Sequence to fold (87 residues):
Amino acid sequence: MDRRIEHVVAVARGGSFTAAAGIVGVTQSTITKSVADLELQIGYAIFVRSARGASLTEQGREFVERAYKLLEDTKVLLNSTHGSQDP
Fold:
């Protein structure tokens, strides 16, 4: 799984890049670079950055909703197959 997805969701939850770093357990600069790289790849800003933190753009809100669902679905999938021997 692309860690950038987890980083974006953490920023949305924490409201700032600094809070996201604490949630994920990496440095703030790692979160900043990760999100910036992802925004460059997808071609639009996910967050509006300010001195008070980060807020979602309209496109960012849609992105984070899908990203959150993807992370939750991944957790369910991995937990439901735990211990299973069949492919």
